[in-house]
Design the sequence.
């Protein structure tokens, strides 16, 4: 993983210091997992689970397309990350309501349009438009019933019927 960090550092300066990565069954966190706050670690694992499910389902196609650069300053990695960040949006909605979802949406616009993931979507406005359909599905209550999000949200909520 350190060799990969040397290769991608010019495009993703925070790789291995600010970004969590998953390859197969292994999740690489920027620090020791036990040093992370438990709630943050649980969100990271939920996000990375979507990547693991996609890796298992699509195999080499996932890895190849994750690195593919599309025309106009976009990457196919953005598609995979939007699928995984849908979990972050949903968990923010579950825990903090629409205002939590909005805070996460704003953070993700920066993530998608900035150096954190190597500028995977060109420009803030384009990143907002790319993320908006997922936000709309979450607010409409539809995303929570789609796989794999339904199982992840159910596990997040546990047995507490008072939570939405």
Sequence:
């Amino acid at each position: 993983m350190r060799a990969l960090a040397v290769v991608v550092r010019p495009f993703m300066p925070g790789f291995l210091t600010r970004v969590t990565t998953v390859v197969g069954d292994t999740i690489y966190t920027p620090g020791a997992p036990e040093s992370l706050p438990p709630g943050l670690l649980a969100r990271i694992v939920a996000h990375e689970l979507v990547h693991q499910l996609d890796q298992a389902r699509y195999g080499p196609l996932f890895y190849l397309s994750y690195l593919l650069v599309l025309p106009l300053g976009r990457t196919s990695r953005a598609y995979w990350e939007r699928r995984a960040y849908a979990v972050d949006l949903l968990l923010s909605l579950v825990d903090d309501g629409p205002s939590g979802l909005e805070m996460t949406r704003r953070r993700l616009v920066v993530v998608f349009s900035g150096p954190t993931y190597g500028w995977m979507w060109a420009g803030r406005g384009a990143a907002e438009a790319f993320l908006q359909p997922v936000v709309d599905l979450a607010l409409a209550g539809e995303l929570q019933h789609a796989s794999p999000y339904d199982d992840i949200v159910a596990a997040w909520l546990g047995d507490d019927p008072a939570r939405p």
